[in-house]
């Protein structure tokens, strides 16, 4: 059984957590994040410590307990340090460009694919086969990085496609002759 919900969150200096109804707002040096939490979980802020408690001990409340704590902890870490993901383009002729807030991907289709970078995220293209995405919202960052990866997912035979940095693609053997 997980005990994550009972762990306290220690707030670093410059971070302020407030709650109005079911909406939790975290303010920090890099920005502000808000999220609605379940009414089944109660959050209390004592100085620099945030605690979570559940009313009942059934399966739903137990699962929400740990999830709520993890989400608020991710918000605190995001406004202090921020998050980033790096994507690599692997394939002959595959490249990326940044035009304003639009990411232009040339990944083997007849036309380039244009992807709009969402508000709250920042994309950089240090070289034409690397994309760096950063922001304070971990959920939004993960969704956008997964969408960019899905434009051309890595295939198992040659390994071509868009992959996360450090991601291992399981390769398959191709056809063999007699």
Give me the secondary-structure topology.
Blueprint lengths: L8 E2 L5 E5 L2 E6 L2 E6 L4 E6 L2 E6 L4 H22 L2 E8 L4 E5 L2 E5 L6 E4 L4 E4 L5 E6 L2 H14 L9 E4 L14
Antiparallel strand pairs: 1-6, 2-3, 3-4, 5-6, 7-12, 7-13, 8-9, 9-10, 11-12
Count of β-strands: 13
Low-confidence spans: pLDDT under 50, at least 5 residues?
none
Alpha-carbon distance between the termini? 54 Å
In spatial order, strands of the major sheet run 11-12-7-13
Order of helices and strands: EEEEEEHEEEEEEHE
Write a concise keyword list for the protein shown above:
four-stranded antiparallel beta sheet; alpha+beta; 178 residues; three-stranded antiparallel beta sheet; elongated
Describe the 3D structure:
It is a single chain. By secondary structure, the protein is of the alpha+beta class. The chain contains two helices and 13 strands. It has a four-stranded antiparallel β-sheet, with helices on one face. Strands 1-6-5 form a three-stranded antiparallel β-sheet. Strand 3 and strand 4 form a beta hairpin.
Quick summary:
The protein has 178 residues and is an alpha+beta fold. It is 20% helix and 38% strand.
